[in-house]
Fold this protein.
Amino acid sequence: MLRLASGRDLERLQQLWLFTVVHAHPSLPVEYWQQRLPEFRRCCLGAEACVVYQSALDSVADGFFTLCAGNALPWLCVNPGAVRRGAGSALITEAKRRRRKLHTWVLQDNLGARYFLQEQGFVERERQPAPAGDQHWISMVYQR
């Protein structure tokens, strides 16, 4: 089930975000992401839309995405336990329904996200050096 996030979801979304990014980026220390929690909070609170995926069997969020100005899709996170069960596909389908064009940045070592986005029609546009981890941020764009 998809629904708009509410204020009561913020703590769960923070936990889910931190767990997801730490597991998706093993080359970066946990502290790198913990330092970015305030930035993540601001992003969620200032997003034009924050949509949550919740399985029919559970009352907590198993995934979410945020949409911001400029067709930005800063975060699309899915609980690793819900991967390959339709959560990510449901979320990205909803994001694409809301925007004709989407833009996101993915770290080079996040192969799962890169592959998933390519399957969903995103294409790589550019690479920029990341400040940590000796890798690049990859700009990926979707347009229907």
